[in-house]
Write a structure and sequence with these properties.
- InterPro entries: Ig-like_dom, Ig-like_dom_sf, Ig-like_fold, Ig_sub, Ig_V-set, OX2G-like, RNaseH_sf, Tc1-like_DDE_dom.
- GO terms for molecular function: cell-cell adhesion mediator activity; DNA binding.
- It comes from Coregonus suidteri.
- Keywords: Disulfide bond, Glycoprotein, Immunoglobulin domain, Membrane, Signal, Transmembrane, Transmembrane helix.
- It is elongated and about 185 Å long.
- It is α+β, with helices and mostly antiparallel strands.
- The chain folds into five domains: about 45 residues; about 280 residues, Ribonuclease H-like superfamily/Ribonuclease H (Nucleotidyltransferase, domain 5); about 100 residues, Immunoglobulins (Immunoglobulin-like, Sandwich); about 100 residues, Immunoglobulins (Immunoglobulin-like, Sandwich), CATH 2.60.40.10; about 90 residues, Sandwich (Immunoglobulin-like), CATH 2.60.40.
- Strands 7-15-14-9-10-11 form a six-stranded mixed sheet.
- It has 15 helices and 32 strands.
- It starts with 15 loop residues before the first helix and ends with a helix.
Length: about 700
Amino acid sequence: MTVNHPRSGAPCKFSPRGASMIMRKVRDQPRTTRQNLVNDLKRAGTTVSKKTISNTLRRHGLKSCSARKVTLLKPAHVQARLRFANDHLDDPEEEWEKVMWSDETKIELFGLNSTRRVWRKKKDEYNPKNTIPTVKHGGGKIILWGCFSAKGTGRLHRIEGRMEGAMYREILANNLLPSVRALKMGRGWVFQHDNDPKHTARATKEWLRKKHLKVLEWPSQSPGLTQIENLWRELKVRIAQRQPQNLKDLEKMTLGREVTTSPTKRADGAAFLVQLVVWSNSATVPWSITSSWWSIWYSNSQQLVIGLAVKVTPASYNKRRRVSRAGTMMCESSLVRCLQLCVFLLMVARLQGKVTAPERVEAPVELPFTLTCLVSKGRGDSLKQVRWLDVQNQTLLTYQPSQKDSVSGQQHVELAPSPKDTSAITIRRVGFRDEGCYTCIFDLYPSGSQEGHTCLTVTSRVTAEGNKTVVSGKAAALSCSYGLPEKVQQVLWRHTAEQGDSSEVASYAKRSDPMIEPPYQERAWLTPSLSHSQLSIRPVSVQDEGCYTCEYHTYPEGTKSATVCLTVFVLPKPQVSYKNTSPGVIEANCTAVSRPPVEIVWNVERDNRTMGPPVTSQLQQGDGTTLVISTLTVQSGLLKDVSVKCLVHHKGLESPIAVSMNTKIGTALTILISVTTVAALLVICLCFCLWKCFLRKEDETESERRK
C-alpha cells in the first residue's frame, strides 16, 4: 500500500545560485530596488515576487534602510581634505588642546518633532492621537554663536537679525576673546571657524590680523568635521525634551542654561573618533565639556586623518567599515602606511564593475549636454536593453540597441549617437532641476544587469552688461545676472575706488529685503532678485566712480562674481576773460572745470598774428575735477579785424563748445549808454514842452471865462 505524505512546504522559487546572484548584485549596487531584482530574475527565466526578494535578503542579514546623506564633494574638496589630514597627521595632543572651536547654529521651536513612530491600526492614521502637529518655519527660531576648547565651553551669544561681517567681528570681540581669557588658554592658541563668506571677508581677515590671532586653515565643504556640531546636537535634543511652548521658553532654556548635560563616556576612543568623523557626527556629545572627555576624544588622535580619508571617498558602507577596521589595527605600527593602505583599498573598490562612467561632470546652464556610459561585456553576453534613470530614480530614457524605433523617454532628453557598447543621452537644455546623479543600466544576457552612475553639476557664470559712463548728477544703472538663482544665498555689491579702498554698497539675501549701506541710502536702489541684479544710483557724484563687483554667494560652489566699472564725467562750462597787460597787448584766458580734463584750442580767423603759442596749465580740485587754464597773448589791433574763439573739447560732448572773445564790448557799451542818455533827455524835454503847452491852454481857458 502506497501512502502520499504532504510536503513540508512550498519549494523554493529559485536555486541557491540565483540567491547568490542577487546577493552579489546588492553588494555591488546597494541602491538596486526589489523591482530591478525581480526583472533580472524574470529575464533569466525565474518569476518571483518582491516579498520573496525581501525574505531572501533578510535571511542573509540585509534590510532596507534609508541612505545616509553626505556632503557632495568636488575633487578640489577631496584634495583639500587629504592635505589637511597629511598636515596634521603627527600633531601631538597639546596642539589640539590649543584649538578654540566655533560655529553658528539655528534652534527652532519645534525643530525636532519631524520624525515620531506610533502604534496604530491601518485606518487610524489621521486620528489626533496618531499625528504630530507641525508649525510653518518651525514656529520661530533663535540663532546662536558658541565656542569651546579642551578646557571647557566659552560664551554662548544670541544673534539678533541678519548677521553681517561687522556683526560677526563684534561677536568675536565681545565673546571670543573673553572666552579665551576665562578658559586661561594662554598664548599660542588657535582659532577655528568655517569658510562662511562673513568669516573669510577681507575686513574679517584684517581684524584677525590686527588682533594677532592664529586661524586654523579649514577645508571647504567640511561642516561635519568640526566637533562643535556634537554640542549643538546635544543642546537641541535636550531642549526638545523640555518641550518649550513659545520663544520665551526657548530663550530661557537656551540662554538661561536650564539645559544641563553630562559628559558622554566611551571606552573605545579610537572607535568613537572614527564614528565621529566618518558618520557625520552620529554620536551625542554634551555642551558641558570636561577635560576627561577631551582625553577620551584624543586617545587615538591620529584616527582623525583616517576618518578624513575615509569620508572624502564615496565607497559603500561595508567597504568603509572594513577600511576603518584595518586602519585601526595598522595605525599602531605605522600611521602613514595605514593612510596609504586606506586610500589604495578605496581606489581599488571604485574600479570594480563592468560599466565605466565619469564620476562627476559639470554642465553649463541653458546649454545642451551629453551624458555617456560605456559597458564592457563579458564573453557570451549580449546587450538587450539600455535604461537611464534620472536624479529621482525615474525612467529618463529606454531603448533597445537592436531596434532603432524603440526609443522612449522624457521630452527634454534625446538619444545621442554613440559607438558600440556605449550609451549617450543629450539633455536639450540643462537647468537647475537636472543636477544630481544619473544611473545608466545595461541589461545583459545571460549575466544580468550592470549599471553605472555619473553625477551632473550644473554651473553658471556671472555676466555683467559692461562698463558704464554717466554725467555727474544723472542716474546710473549697473546690472549683472546669474543663471542659477536656486543656488544663490545672497547678492552683494562692492565698490572699489581708484585708490583701492573697497566698501559694501548694497546686498539682497534670500527671504529678506534689499539692504543699502548708510553712505548710499536715499540715492541707491537694488532690485530684489537672485538672478538679475541691478544697482541704481541717482544722483551720481564723482566719488561714485570706480569698479563695482557683484558677488553671488552660492551653495555649494562658493562666491562667483563679475566686475563693471563706472566712469563719471563732469561737463565743462568754459569762460573767456582778457586784460591789457601793456599798450597794444591783450592777454586772453580761457578756463574750464571738468572731469576728465578738457583740451582747449584757440581759433584765430585768417592770418595768425598772435604773439606766441598759448600756455596751458592744470590745477587739481578737491572734488576730483580739474581746472584747465589756457592763456593766449594777441595784439589789440588784431581784434578789430578778425574773430578769436576758444574751442573746448571734452569726451562727454558730441561737439566742442566755442566761446568768442569780443574786445569791442567796452566801446559798444559806452555808445549804448550815451545813446540811451540822449534819448532819455529828449524824452524829458518833450514831456516838459507838452506840460508847458498844457498849462498855457489852461491859462487861456481860464482868462476867457473871466471875460
